[in-house]
Design brief:
The structure is a homodimer.
Chain A (H helix, E strand, L loop, with lengths): L20 H23 L26 H18 L3 E5 L5 H10 L2 H5 L7 H10 L27 H9 L6 E7 L6 H6 L13 E8 L15 H10 L3 E6 L7 H27 L9 E6 L9 E2 L2 E2 L18 H12 L15 H4 L42 E3 L1 H15 L4 E5 L17 E2 L13 E2 L4 E3 L3 H13 L3 E7 L7 H14 L11 E7 L16 H5 L7 E4 L4 H13 L4 E5 L5 E3 L3 H10 L1 E3 L14 E6 L1 H17 L5 E6 L17 H8 L5 E5 L4 H7 L8 E4 L10 H7 L4 H11 L8 H21 L4 H4 L4 H4 L3 H4 L12
Parallel strand pairs in A: 1-2, 2-3, 3-5, 4-5, 9-12, 9-13, 10-11, 13-14, 14-16, 15-16, 19-20, 19-21, 21-22
Antiparallel strand pairs in A: 6-7, 8-17, 18-20
Helix pairs in contact in A: 1-2, 1-3, 1-5, 1-9, 2-3, 6-13, 12-16, 16-17, 18-22, 22-23
Organism (chains A, B): Cellulomonas composti
Family (chains A, B): Belongs to the XFP family.
EC number (chains A, B): 4.1.2.-
């Protein structure tokens, strides 16, 4: 799996290490250079290498950035360089304290990568000036580790996902080391706190190794951190309780020389890597016990090497070092003086020559080519991305002799196809979910794979489909599922996340960060496209029979479409064949977030595979077989649906209408690709106004049955000609303990109410069909009453099928794949 | 602080315990009765006490619920009853595995509370029948612990917040024990994983005690749990690492008699409560060391007391017991038989008399009155809620001699008022935030209080405003802040959560659950209204100078308004005085979620306090001083704004227009209360169409500058008459590394673009003002170019003030409260 230019011998032990004085001094020079370049980025507009005395004009007018964590990051980067080079160890980094952005830019500049990707950042005085100037400057680069930073797969934005991303990167990369720095602030977040347990899911043979380094610098913006303020033995217990072997390193709190510190750390790092190599060796030799992987506690002062006190207040070693310690350096001469001596303390003249070139001895610390962490192709996953070998989804089609003529649990059909996706792609496709892959009806994948698990086993009586290696990862943490999948995708692989619809909101903010990452990388030429992030939300708002109101929320779609149209897609396949077609499209796509909502309960199939492909290709369309239009005439009313339950109710309403008002011309439209409703100017999938009018008409009433909150449809269509004729029925936060049909009735999305809507909105019907209207009201009351007496839906509703299917033999109507066992929701 | 009917002697040691055979048998009878009532709720439609042979007609047609966790919950409830009664210990419960809802209903029925609140659930055969029937049945109660469950403050919906809620309940309730059951599934979530660290924030003297009970039943829906599959010493290390003293209890895996098990657990529980009493005593005596609070690991089989095997598959002690083990009991005679013998195993005839009354000896286990966990007033917080003693916010007004005539950081002014709110309400108001209370400019509260912290201290050089007791709680976990605040509010207190706007999405799903809780409790007569949940989002999308694109997302408001109008409110106060007025309103309100967005950067004040009060009372209004309308005529164009930055840009645009097109009649509208835009039929704050037209006109162009995503304004107004004339400018996900004005330009929200919008949309201007239009374009380019050269905004924009303020002396223009120190974002 290795992709480095120099083929590494993975997981060498460190016998070749040479921790002589020269090496330690080289490490120190790198560290000083990286620190100098970091301070320079934060403060300097000009005079980058202090060729002339520092004046206020050399200082940026707006000082923006984060200093406190940066020197620690630089220290670790320097030391990792040494061991990577010595061991030829394929390594990427994940920087939890990503606001220390200048450090990673500095390191990439020192090893030559930065200039490779940004040729304008030359290796001379002028290049250093540009490097400094661009940092957190209008039109420049962000202050955080970002997509713009070579070597990064982890934005320094929201905190909490460093370890999840790291493990995602490690899966199926058996020779890769993921050095992961966790800030002690970040360590307080929930997602990070549980992500330590990832070590029970990683396989020591087939997966790579995550080396967590807890950067205990003690402070956040304005407070101490929790983990820095508990007893040492408590912290050790915690790390052991998380399943790690901790190595504790403390430095910077006394007068110990930097060379001595480097010596101690380098020795420890060799030990740690030797331990890892030994664990890997044992695992290859068949040892199946769960390793206690090493981790490092790295306790140093915050803002290490910065000014100790500013205006008499302790700065280094306190929260005051978090951001920009000398915020008024431009306007306060004393502060400018502190800045000058701070910059000079790194002795840049020893590190750069007279033209501003980096001392070759510094660069010699770094490995070469793709072994440089800044230039490791795993961190630009699109470089490594291979197309999935997808089986032909048409071959998995369910038979649909007539519309409604068979019944399936759609995700179960999808599962059949995914089973073969896994079979054909044994090492670059994974399914993630919080304990729900079977519940979401994808269980046939367990014919060819297992759930990967490296904690204890209890035996086959209770451990079904659980194995040390497998393509499915389940942990009851949506944050972990999302974070693992993101890490997996960002390093050039494929996958999907299946989740309850309501609880996907748990990762709303993670979605935000990933969507922003995709949007930004679209504009970075050297970043290569990665596989899309695919959701399957199959326990949805309309069928929370076991759970009720607390499990009902269809708003993730609303959240998603706030992001740039170029990176988000939303699909509501109405049946099994459309789901297959949709998902085939999703797994082929790049650089998107695809949200697919498809219920898991038995439901009728309406489209043959050919029809499904045509329908999905258009994204929406008229279902002529369901309507009662007369060729060449305009319909009286349009019934539209997006979502499986709404589609069923719309068809049932259309059925009532054709029986009760035979001369009413009804058009039935089904929407798979929600983005089609938008204006072509707003979304690449959007319909032109002309196309929209051709479908929905500009002047006929449109009754739109929608899976989610109704106003989303208004939001997508408010500029359309016929918008004032559009009436949307959707979820109104009116759930309670109900049966399925009672649930749609509560939200006025039911067939009877849709018929009432038609009567109320088609002018000529109003008075003439008062009787039908009353019957519909009565039918609702009767159905409601039935549920309260019998605890089930009224059979004529529950067992309703589209009339064409009524003629079929019962035997044909039940898809053989439907479970008769317990409903494991 | 105690509110029990029998005044408890808090934190007694357990010398009075009587673990004789009679007591243990009483515990066992309670347990059997609760288990029987739980199974009955899940399965039985009729024949509740098996007076006749069980037939399929007695079984519910749809079996919905969760069995696996229930007997463990019942076991713990029974044992807690004993110690509460013996020690008169004020106690509430928090049930993390809340899907075990039938257990809590059963327990409340056994102690008499259920019949108290639901008189229809009588204590006889018919009452038991109704109790069973209603469970997870149309029109009945949810299958989870829910607002409908007496004694609950914690919905059994989304998992992860049991400990956060528990600690929220414990703060400022020094005599309260919060018995908190954590499922081992839930324990895998991120929020739960970090919430263990709450013990570093609770004060042993002034706060109550949380007793975490980790219910290690080993399985989730379809998988083992992580914590049940690590070594015992690893789990012990983890709990010790979290700062607890673990007590491990294992039962149910062998033939030990239930009486023996009860004896062991009761003895251990006495030890645990004695330890707690001892810790409390030491703390009262002045011991300031952080206690290692006890916690219990409670390892039992999942589905304990249920059928061991069903159809030859291991059920009890496996994931198969999670939901409804005999899902086809109605239609499979063998399963019906298993159900019969399962039900009979509890020997209900020994527990209920011939009329269905509970054996008085069982009830005697429970404490009395408000000591019953089901009837503890802390769990119906509105009962205990006291109005805050609010200082008159008018007295904190900033001076605004003319519009724009002073400058403030609005949250800093709010902080002055909050300082006195804290002073006057020393034990029922708290501020929560993830390390940002000072950054968000509320730092003056530290004049009267501190950040509560019970981990290590390092001394005054670095620990500013950190103390063992204080009204501010800061941990770098939005989940914890939200969970603590929810627990605090639900137990009848007040508070606010200050957070970065972008990262409040982290708790989107928690907001959902809380909003649903509020909506449901509005319809439960015995639930009393609680204080609103107040957000202050003051590091907002438009000023992420230090952080950039990854920190920009104004979509929380979109998320919030998906919930029922009756429980959500959103405010955009444009300056300091309006913020004061708004927040006074929020802290007085009940049963809402109030979202207040207000920037923290220095910005002009526009309204005097009297004007601010009038403006906030209306929620929106015409700012006549800013417009150029002629009395009695209709304006040519309406410029509207919601949000502080948009308000500034609209005013600057109005300034340009009055200078450049003096005869143009411009109306300036400012919106504080976003819900006013909605239809009166949609939201209680909504304007009627007539009012709306009176403000916005039905036919004039409206240029609306909005803080967030523009389509939200369309969504709120799409039914309004003038909607087709509405043009919204807002955030478009176009941020990058910029200066503040560059940021608004990137999103076309800037003054120059607003003027262009006016020219383009007021018909008569188009051609005549092509020159002005060009100048505006040029001004944008010039401003953009300036930022890229100087790294700062162009001074004529940055220093612009409303013309009325121009005449003032400079000295009057700067509010003395503005910091000159570092910008601690």
């Amino acid at each position: 799996m290795s992709t480095t230019t120099t083929a590494p011998t993975a997981w060498r032990a460190g016998s070749g290490s040479t921790l002589d004085q020269e090496t330690l001094e080289r490490i120190d020079k790198w560290w000083r250079a990286a620190n100098y370049l970091s301070v320079g980025q934060i403060y300097l507009l000009d005079n980058p290498l202090l060729r002339e005395p520092l004046t206020r004009e050399h200082v940026k007018p707006r000082l923006l950035g984060h200093w406190g964590t940066t020197t620690g990051l630089n220290f670790l980067y320097a030391h990792l360089n040494r061991v990577i080079k010595e061991r030829l160890q394929d390594t990427i980094y994940v920087i939890g304290p990503g606001h220390g952005g200048p450090g990673l830019v500095a390191s990439a500049y020192l090893d030559g990568t930065y200039t490779k990707y940004y040729p304008d950042m030359t290796e001379d005085d002028e290049g250093v000036r540009r490097l400094f100037r661009q940092f957190s400057f209008p039109g420049g680069i962000p202050s955080h580790v970002a997509p713009e930073t070579p070597g990064s797969i982890h934005e320094g934005g929201e905190l909490g996902y460093a370890l999840s991303h790291a493990y995602g990167a490690a899966f199926d990369n058996p020779d890769l080391l993921v050095a992961t720095i966790i800030g002690d602030g970040e360590a307080e977040t929930g997602p990070l706190a549980t992500s330590w347990h990832s070590n029970k899911f990683v396989n020591p043979v087939n997966d790579g190794v995550v080396l967590p380094i807890l950067h205990l610098n003690g402070y956040k913006i304005a407070n101490p951190t929790v983990l820095a303020r508990i007893d040492d033995d408590e912290l050790t217990d915690l790390m052991q309780g998380y399943g790690h072997k901790p190595h504790v390193f403390v430095a910077g709190f006394d007068d110990e020389s930097h060379i001595s510190i480097h010596g101690r750390f380098a020795t420890m790092l060799d030990e740690v890597l030797d331990e890892i190599a030994e664990i890997k060796r044992r695992a290859h030799d068949g040892d199946e016990s769960r390793p206690r992987w090493p981790m490092i506690v790295f306790r140093t002062p915050k803002g290490w090497t910065g000014p100790d006190y500013i205006d008499g207040k302790k700065t280094t070693g306190s929260w005051r070092a978090h951001q920009v310690p000398l915020a008024n350096a431009r306007d306060t001469p004393e502060h400018l003086e502190v800045l000058r001596s701070w910059l000079e303390s790194y002795r840049a003249h020893e590190l750069f020559d007279d033209e501003g070139r980096i001392d070759p001895d510094i660069r010699a610390l770094a490995p070469e080519g793709h072994l440089r962490m800044s230039d490791n192709p795993h961190a630009n996953g699109g470089l490594l991305l291979k197309d999935l070998r997808l089986p032909d989804f048409r071959e998995y089609a369910v038979d649909v002799p007539v519309p409604g003529g068979s019944i399936s649990e759609a995700p179960r059909i999808l599962g059949n196809w995914l089973t073969d996706v896994i079979r054909r792609n044994p090492d670059n496709f994974r399914i993630f979910g919080p304990d729900e892959t079977a519940s979401n009806r994808l269980q046939s994948v367990f014919e060819v794979t297992d759930k990967q698990w490296n904690a204890q086993f209890e035996g086959p009586e209770v451990d079904e489909h659980l194995a040390r290696a497998g393509r499915v990862l389940e942990m009851l943490s949506e944050h972990q599922c999302q974070g693992w999948l993101e890490g997996y995708l960002l390093t050039g692989r494929h996958g999907l996340f299946n989740c309850y619809e309501a609880f996907i909101h748990i990762i709303d903010s993670m979605f935000n960060q990933h969507a922003k990452w995709l949007k930004v990388t679209n504009d970075i030429p050297w970043r290569r496209p990665i596989a899309s992030l695919n959701y399957l939300l199959s326990s949805h708002v309309w069928r929370q029979d076991h759970n009720g109101f607390s499990h009902q929320d269809p708003g993730f779609v609303d959240h998603v479409i706030n992001k740039k149209a170029e990176v988000v897609r939303v699909y509501f396949p109405p049946d099994a064949n459309t789901l297959l077609s949709t998902y085939d499209h999703c797994l082929r796509s790049r650089q998107y977030v695809n949200v697919v909502v498809s219920g898991k309960q038995p439901a009728p199939n309406f489209l043959t595979m050919d029809q499904a492909i045509a329908h999905c290709t258009r994204g929406l369309g008229i279902w002529e077989w369901a309507g009662t239009e007369v060729e060449g005439e305009k319909p009286d009313v349009v019934l539209a649906a997006a979502g499986d339950v709404p589609t069923l109710e719309v068809l049932a309403a259309a059925d009532i209408l054709r029986r009760e008002i035979p001369d009413l011309q009804v058009r039935v439209i089904n929407v798979v690709d929600l983005m089609r409703l938008q204006d072509a100017r707003e979304h690449p999938h959007g319909l032109s106004d002309k196309e929209f009018d051709g479908l929905f008409t500009a002047d006929r009433p449109v009754i739109f049955a929608y899976h989610g909150y109704p106003w989303l449809i208004h939001r997508l269509t408010y500029r359309r000609n016929g918008h004032q004729h559009l009436h949307v029925r959707g979820y109104k936060e009116e759930g309670t303990t109900t049966t399925p049909f009672d649930m749609v009735m509560l939200n006025d999305l039911d067939r009877f109410h849709l018929v009432i809507d038609v009567i109320d909105r088609v002018d000529r019907l109003g008075a003439a069909y008062a009787g039908l209207r009353q019957r519909m009201q009565d039918a609702r009351l009767e159905a409601r009453e039935y549920t309260r007496t019998h605890g089930d839906d009224i059979p004529e509703v529950r067992d309703w099928v589209w009339p064409d299917a009524q003629d079929q033999a019962d035997a044909n109507m039940v898809d053989a794949t439907i479970s008769t066992g317990g409903d494991n929701e």
